Amino acid sequence: MQLRADLGQAITDDAFVLHFQPIVDLATGHTRGLEALVRWQHPARGLVPPLEFIEIAEESGLIVPLGDWVLRHAVDAAAKFRAAVPEQAPYMSVNVSVRQFRSAGFVSRVFAELARAGLPAELLTIEITESLLLGDDEQIHAGLQTLRAAGVKVSIDDFGTGYSSLSYLHRVDVDTLKLDKSFVDTIATSPQQYDLVRGIIQLAATLQLDVVAEGIETDQHRELLIDGGCAYGQGYLFARPLPEDAVLGYMAGSE
Ligand code: G
Ligand code: G
Ligand code: MN
Ligand code: NA
């Protein structure tokens, strides 16, 4: 397929760009973190969103060099933002696919990038999906523990869409749950869903996990989530994913 052939070339050509979506403190609106979201600057198709190529990258194995590209550029951007606003340095949250996490030397490459950029480990979060945590894989758990022991944070992306059984949460090596947009979408219209979401937030608190709610689009979403005990969120209500040169301006405007 053409897109797949082009993707290999795009990695050689450095034809990607990162956008950054603010992760905010729901009560104050202050930016706490940024999620790095990759786009492909395709010569013929323009800016291609990740939904159209991440899966192809996964299947072909190109996700490993692409993921390395994302990690390097996200860490560099985080170091720049930190230098610009040392008092409010936002953490950088990077999506890592299962295949990338499992690739040989992944954890070492994370540490090498942090060292190269001079970024404190505490300012990096990796977002993984629940599927990585299934099956009690020793290598995965060891990798997560090594990262977390060094200060890197780990969050479960799209929480609630996978095979989540709430019962596994007490024994996984993570810091944060990212509550999937599909939950947030329903809380304003369904009291049952809102109860469920509040229950998840309370359970997370008991387990000392932070919760970041995704896809917040309205003030009502924001208020219901705050009332439910959720401290952090992201979504179009606050900001869309922003080009790098728009991030500091957004942050200044929300302080
Ligand atoms: O804005 P949005 O269309 O950017 O992102 C769509 C999906 O693509 C999200 O599920 C997101 O997790 C995924 N995605 C975005 N950037 C990356 C990336 O750098 N690596 C991986 N593995 N997934 C990404
Ligand atoms: O799956 P993941 O959580 O990594 O991806 C985040 C995705 O959600 C990105 O595609 C991002 O552009 C999108 N997104 C973020 N906030 C909103 C929102 O408020 N509404 C909608 N519809 N999509 C959002
Ligand atoms: Mn994500
Ligand atoms: Na998500």
Automatic annotation (TrEMBL):
Q: Which domain of life is it from?
A: Bacteria
| Annotated EAL domain residues | 1-255
> What is this protein's record name?
Putative diguanylate cyclase/phosphodiesterase with PAS sensor
Q: Which organism is it from?
A: Actinoplanes friuliensis DSM 7358
Query: Which lineage is the organism of this entry classified under, starting from the top rank?
Result: Bacteria, Bacillati, Actinomycetota, Actinomycetes, Micromonosporales
Segment of the intact protein contained: 736 to 990 of 1000
